[in-house]
Amino acid sequence: MIVTATLSLSTAGPTFTGLRCKECGQPYEAGARHVCEDVCFGPLEVVYDYEAIKSRVSRATIEAGPASIWRYREFLPIAGDPIDVGTGFTPLLKANNLAKRLGLRSLYIKNDGVNMPTLSFKDRVVSVALTRARELGFKTVSCASTGNLANSTAAISAHAGLDCCVFIPSDLELGKVLGTLIYNPTLMAVKGNYDQVNRLCSEVANTYGWGFVNINLRPYYSEGSKTLGYEVIEQLGWELPDHIVAPLASGSLFTKIRKGFDEFIKCGLVEEKAVRFSGAQAEGCNPIATAFREGRDFITPVKPNTIAKSIAIGNPADGPYAIDIANRTGGNIADVTDTEIIEGIKLLAETEGVFTETAGGTTIAVLKKLVEQGKINPEERTVAYITGNGLKTTEAVVDHIGKPYTIEAQLDSFNAAWRQAQAEQAG
Ligand SMILES: *Cc1c(COP(=O)(O)O)cnc(C)c1O
Ligand SMILES: [Zn+2]
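Above: the input record for the complex with zinc ion. Below: its predicted structure, written as tokens.
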């Protein structure tokens, strides 16, 4: 007699079959590599057996999974047990107050500012990359970071018992530096911008044979961002939104949300529908927004100068793919000033009780701008992706918020301060 049991990954084997060049299609084994060395130097992507995934996965099996990215493990490039630090399944908030302020009917905030363990979306990509790094036998892991990635890599490698050496630009916010050092990795603060850090790391990767989550492990790393697409579908009751707005650094996150949506459509988990994709950059580092505005499909690198350091990549690897998605879906890519970014952070905090970092301020400011320009229809069900936490970038807002009333521990003193507070609010 043949007994049909629900297959688990361990008994059914991995659902990914290798890597493939995104440009020319050349296949590669699923090792630690990220460019098409044999043919065209294009980026490599993970290849899946979607028939196998379809046969194992349904809405019910996903809903029965853990409240983390690992409920989608069949869609992720890991062979065995995940490194599980509770990453993912962050709240999708219905943002009625902000919607009203902006003149939208249906707005949601996907809040990765409360992701685990380090309060940014990077925990998703690092959980996947380090799981794969461990499978590939790496003992030391590393990354070139704009800040959040260093936090995630340091934290999750500590949990997994991997050695860690991470690289950041030397001018990062204290919260990002401290949020790395507390896990006691080796931290290299490089005198230069992210693009210089990244170039140095490519050389180190070649020389030292470490697993760099966003260099030689990049095909696996970037797949983690797909979960931001899956979760929104599931949290909207297994429906796609009409419009999404997300920040762009390298452009990877943006393209992988698209891939997540496409995979759920392909596997019959959600009904197909057009979704517009809009991207957000800071004016002080806007190579993708500029190319989009000028109708180009190639990126002219810039030298970053903005408070939105976490998305300050002057030479974004996935920029052309992001532009293509914005164009094909009828979306936009726009940029905003540092002043608008600060206003965006405050607006989200005051209307929804969500304190985001500068990247989130960029997203909210671009959302506002696109609504004002008529580029987001008030009737569209819109999701804004908030990717990081404001407590890591307090420098950006400390001079732009109120001050406490310092009083004596006596009722008289409070009475006077309260009168003053009310007068100030009225006037
Ligand atoms: C890294 C990062 C991004 C964007 O990442 P890409 O995938 O490189 O575009 C967005 N927001 C925050 C907070 C980040 O740290
Ligand atoms: Zn190729």
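Notes for the reader.
Residues 120-122, 146, 148, 247-253, 310-311, 357, 359, 387-388 surround pyridoxal-5'-phosphate (ligand 1) (CB under 6 Å).
The chain has 16 helices and 13 strands.
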